[in-house]
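Support request from a user on the community tier.

User writes: "When I paste my C-alpha cells into the form, the page sometimes reloads and wipes my input. The last time it worked, I copied everything first. Here is what I submitted, just in case something in the input itself triggers the reload:"
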C-alpha cells in the first residue's frame, strides 16, 4: 500500500437542490403583482414575419379564402342582428335593474384567489423572489344606462301626463229684427229663436245661420274659445217684391194703392208682399190699372198701352132730346146720358166738371173719356167710356152709401 502513488482527490460537486418552481401544484392561483412576468420572447424582425405571412397567404387555396371571407361576413351579420334584437328587447320590455345577487357575483371570484394564495406565502422561495401584492378588489360593475332609461320609459307609460281639460264654450245670438230662426252647425230647433243663448259648444269654429221670413239670411263662421262666450248679432235686411212698369207712351206716373211713387215709366219700384193696386196715369191719356199679387224676392211686370183721351173743349149739355138730335151742332159728335139713384150727383168728364147734376145729357167729340160721379155720403164712381161718331153712351148707376 505504501508503494502505491498517492491518489489525487477528485472533487465532485453535490447535486444542486431542486428548484422550488418545479414543484407544480394543481390549480395554483396567479397572484397579481402589477408587473408583466411573462418571459421575454426573442425579438423577431418585422420583415421576416411579413415575408412568412405572405408565403402562408399565397399557399392558401383561393376557394378556401373566399369561403373564409364569406363565413366571416355571415358571422358579423348574425352578431349585428343579435345585438339589434337584444337592444330592442331591452328598450321595449323596460326590465327592472339587475338584481343584487348578480352585482355581487364577481366578489367570490376575487376572494377565491386570495384564499388560494395562502399556500404560496408559506414557500420561502416565492416570498424571496417578489413581494406579496394585495389582491385586487373587484369593483361593482356600473349599471347600464340603457336599463335605467328603459325603466324610466316603463314608468312613463304607466303614469302618462294628464291631458288638458277642454272647457266648453258658449254663444249668445241676437238679430235685428228679433224672432229669427237660429241654426248652429246644421242643427236647429223651433225654440232656437233670437235672442238665443247656446252652451256646451266645443272650442273651435262653428257655422251660424240666422234667417227670418221676409228678410235676408245671414250665415257666418264664429270661433268659440274654450271656457269663453262668443256674441253674434245679425242685421237682417227686409226682402221686397219688385214692380217693373213700362208704358206706351212712356213718362207716365206710377201709383201704388193710390200713392204716387214719384217715378215715371219705365220704372222699378220695391213693393211689400201681398196684393196691391197699381195705376199708371199720364195727362191726356186714360188711366190704366192692375191688381197684382206680390211675393217677396219676385218681380211683377206691368206694361199697359195708354189710350188717348177725347177733347172736352166742345162738350155741351142739352135739356131736350128733340133739340139735341135735330140741331146742327150734333153732327159729327156723340151723345152721353148719365142717370143716378139718388139724383143730384156731380159729373166730371176728363176732370172737366159739368154745370148740371144728374140726370144730365151732353154731346162731345168721338174718343175715350173718363167719367167721375160723386155725391156726398156715397161712394164715388169712376168710369171709362168710348164715344163714337153719331153713337150714344148711357151710364145708369145706383150710388152706394159709404
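"...and here is what came back when it finally went through:"
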Amino acid at each position: 500500500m505504501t508503494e502505491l502513488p498517492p491518489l489525487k482527490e477528485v472533487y465532485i460537486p453535490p447535486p444542486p437542490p431542486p428548484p422550488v418552481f418545479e414543484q407544480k401544484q394543481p390549480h395554483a392561483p396567479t397572484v397579481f403583482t402589477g408587473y408583466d412576468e411573462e418571459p421575454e420572447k426573442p425579438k423577431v424582425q418585422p420583415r421576416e414575419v411579413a415575408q412568412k405571412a405572405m408565403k402562408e397567404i399565397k399557399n392558401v387555396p383561393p376557394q378556401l379564402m373566399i369561403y373564409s371571407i364569406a363565413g366571416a361576413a355571415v358571422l358579423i351579420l348574425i352578431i349585428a342582428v343579435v345585438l339589434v334584437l337584444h337592444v330592442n328587447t331591452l328598450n321595449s320590455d323596460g326590465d327592472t335593474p339587475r338584481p343584487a345577487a348578480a352585482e355581487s357575483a364577481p366578489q367570490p371570484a376575487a376572494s377565491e384567489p386570495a384564499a388560494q394564495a395562502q399556500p404560496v406565502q408559506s414557500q420561502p422561495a416565492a416570498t424571496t423572489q417578489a413581494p406579496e401584492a394585495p389582491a385586487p378588489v373587484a369593483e361593482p360593475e356600473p349599471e347600464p344606462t340603457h336599463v335605467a332609461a328603459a325603466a324610466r320609459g316603463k314608468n312613463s307609460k304607466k303614469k302618462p301626463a294628464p291631458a288638458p281639460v277642454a272647457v266648453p264654450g258658449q254663444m249668445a245670438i241676437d238679430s235685428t229684427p228679433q224672432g229669427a230662426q237660429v241654426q248652429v252647425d246644421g242643427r236647429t230647433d223651433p225654440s232656437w229663436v233670437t235672442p238665443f243663448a247656446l252652451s256646451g259648444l266645443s272650442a273651435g269654429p262653428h257655422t251660424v245661420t240666422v234667417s227670418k221670413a221676409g228678410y235676408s239670411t245671414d250665415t257666418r263662421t264664429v270661433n268659440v274659445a274654450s271656457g269663453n262666450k262668443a256674441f253674434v248679432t245679425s242685421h237682417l235686411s227686409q226682402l221686397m217684391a219688385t214692380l217693373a212698369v213700362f208704358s206706351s207712351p212712356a213718362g207716365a206716373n206710377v201709383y201704388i194703392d193710390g200713392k204716387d211713387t214719384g217715378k215715371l215709366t219705365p220704372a222699378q219700384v220695391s213693393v211689400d208682399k201681398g196684393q196691391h193696386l197699381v195705376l199708371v196715369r199720364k195727362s191726356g191719356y186714360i188711366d190704366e190699372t192692375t191688381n197684382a199679387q206680390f211675393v217677396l224676392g219676385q218681380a211683377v211686370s206691368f206694361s199697359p198701352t195708354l189710350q188717348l183721351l177725347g177733347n172736352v173743349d166742345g162738350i155741351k149739355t142739352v135739356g131736350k132730346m128733340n133739340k139735341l138730335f135735330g140741331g146742327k151742332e150734333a153732327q159729327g159728335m156723340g151723345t152721353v146720358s148719365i142717370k143716378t139713384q139718388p139724383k143730384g150727383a156731380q159729373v166730371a168728364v176728363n176732370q172737366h166738371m159739368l154745370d148740371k147734376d144728374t140726370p144730365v145729357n151732353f154731346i162731345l167729340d168721338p174718343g175715350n173719356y173718363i167719367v167721375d160721379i160723386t155725391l156726398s155720403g156715397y161712394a164715388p164712381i169712376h168710369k171709362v167710356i168710348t164715344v163714337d161718331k153719331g153713337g150714344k153712351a148711357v151710364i145708369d148707376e145706383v150710388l152706394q152709401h159709404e
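Agent notes: The reload is a front-end session timeout and is unrelated to the input. The chain has a mean pLDDT of 76. Residues 333 and 364 are 6 Å apart (CA to CA). Escalated to web team.
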